[in-house]
Amino acid sequence: MVTAKKDISHVKKSQKKPSFSTNPSIELKKVTWPNRDTLIKSTVLILALVIILTSYVSGLDLIFSKLFYILRGQV
Q: What's the rounded Cα separation, in Å, for the pair 38 and 52?
């Protein structure tokens, strides 16, 4: 089976290697930081969701563990 080589002579190659740590302060200036009110609201929302989901998963775990013990006859 013969494979044809692709002509890549038109592809432009960069002379420099990309560096992700050249100047982080320039990148940090591009970041849009939230104001205090938005930050507090987001934090409260995330904490509430973590508490709700933790309670939900813990409740399911308790129900399934009790069901498992009942099915095995180890009440």
A: 21
DSSP characters over 4-18: PPP--TTPPPPSSPP
Question: What are the extents of the domains in the chain?
Answer: 35-72
pLDDT tens-place string over residues 54-65 = 999 999 999 999
Q: Tokens at residue 8, please?
A: 């890549």
Predicted TM-score (pTM) of the model is 0.56
Give the Cα separation of 64 and 58 in Å (integer): 10
Burial of 5 (0-12, 13-18, 19+ CB in 10 A): exposed
- The gap from C-alpha 44 to its chain's centroid, in whole angstroms, comes to 19
